[in-house]
Amino acid sequence: MSxxxxxxxxxxxxxxxxxxxxxxxxxQWIDGRRSVRDFSDKPVPKEVLExxxxxxxxxxxxxxxxxxxxxxxxxxxxxxxxxxxxEKEEKENYDGRMSDRWLKELAPLGTNxxxxxxxxxxxxxxxxxxxxxxxxxxxxxxxYVNESVGIACGFLITAIYNAGLVTLTHTPxxxxxxxxxxxxxxxxxxxxxxxxxxxEKGATVPDLDRKSLKKVAEYYT
Length: 221
Prior knowledge:
Layout: H1 16-30, H2 46-56, E1 68-73, H3 76-97, H4 100-106, H5 117-120, E2 123-130, E3 132-135, E4 138-141, H6 145-162, E5 166-167, H7 176-181, E6 188-197, H8 213-216
Antiparallel strand pairs: 1-2, 2-6, 3-4, 5-6
């Protein structure tokens, strides 16, 4: 027996022409999204971040466990701690952990171990995956955790762009320091760190080409 009450569901039906038009317009809009490293410190209302997080939380998840926690950080003190810890790990990465091939692939993007944006951006969103829950003193597993949280992060990035803001998917490795700095419980593991805000005036991004449809899709008809 399901614990959920099932209710009718429907969405407005579109004609083939409407679907082609709307899907093309969405693609053209989202194609303007870019990862940005140059942030303004202009404030962003907390309500905007809350709406973005709630949009991300509409993502599907294994057994509807919603195995994620979004930590919203605006404290200058905490952002400074996060930057210091992240740069420590990144320096070790650039100075030896990363392979020569990896460093060569990163070189055209101009990245390095200096992560000024972690302090400049008005907000940081630290996404944690919840490996399990403790309910009534009992450990209960969550399911498809990485997949579920990954999908939610896709929603999150789209919602940030929709709000007129920019972000960067930052994945310092290892990320254990984030749980320590934010005093997160044992069942949570850091998954992704995203600075969120307005682009700095004069911000630039690499002039990249995205793969064509032919290179990302295969047809089986």
